[in-house]
């Protein structure tokens, strides 16, 4: 045991690249799986939610903000927080047990880089708010499936979220009426972890997208948020001819100013106003909707498309087998929050056919073939009108 501990202590994270870190973490997970009893594994999984909630409570209390202002060792009495001292102490004790802060003596603590990363201005605090909010929905999944005969949800307006909250509103409507969760959602959507792998324009022949005049619409980014994809495309291809158009809900694009990019309010459940664009682009939009609504979105687009128009969809694609844990976690999250799903290539093809499109190509970077590659690399689906 001492030899093993010595080897572990000798690991210097600062000298490891990301692949090496991933290999070490996978080795640790594999070792734990082999050593843990079924009871220990079940207990760890059951109580993992408690750990996340302890952090969420600290985030809501702005406890990490106050901790970040302390110089060196601090105790409960030093923290200016509008909460019962005993409650604060219990939360601090939990954070220390998780090594989120360090306990140096009785009721004395010091901060850590993890605690500093959870201050209110950090995207990680938004991720904790956004993620833990769905636990109310997850806890209702057994009741939901008992009530609907153990069938996958089919309607984005009659899914687990609506069941758990006793509301007819879609999750996006809920966000519009709840700024605390809406801001957390918007922050999470802009976090780098959502853009793993290569950008679609790095392996798709962008130069093949041509228009007749500089004023013709080249790419319409539907539901494109605040324009990150178009900004990056514009940076890498500054001489690309034609108009770049960003579309999203008014509340999302309010105040967005993108030189060289037209910003347009549009609901993709309504008919597309930009006609005969060379490409209509959807990135991580359709995985928010089950087939019922996804088909509606695509059919609303059809009348605007010309004979040479392309539909480009940047989305994750699940392998038919060997799906990794992160992918199935995402699939369950999509089902709980949006009544939707992550799709295999076969399911994407079926969806496109239902909406009257033909799948022309599935673009991936060279060498991206295994299930592990697909977990980290969104595909680009190229489709045309049938």
Automatic annotation (TrEMBL):
One of its GO terms (biological process) is secondary metabolite biosynthetic process. Pfam families: Dimerisation, Methyltransf_2. This is Uncharacterized protein. GO terms for molecular function: O-methyltransferase activity; protein dimerization activity. Gene3D superfamilies: Vaccinia Virus protein VP39, Winged helix-like DNA-binding domain superfamily/Winged helix DNA-binding domain. SUPFAM superfamilies: S-adenosyl-L-methionine-dependent methyltransferases, Winged helix' DNA-binding domain. Residues 171-358 form the O-methyltransferase C-terminal domain. Keywords: Methyltransferase, S-adenosyl-L-methionine, Transferase. It comes from Penicillium antarcticum. The active site is at residue 287. Residues 45-121 form the O-methyltransferase dimerisation domain. It comes from the Eukaryota. PANTHER family: O-METHYLTRANSFERASE (AFU_ORTHOLOGUE AFUA_2G17820)-RELATED, PUTATIVE (AFU_ORTHOLOGUE AFUA_4G14580)-RELATED.
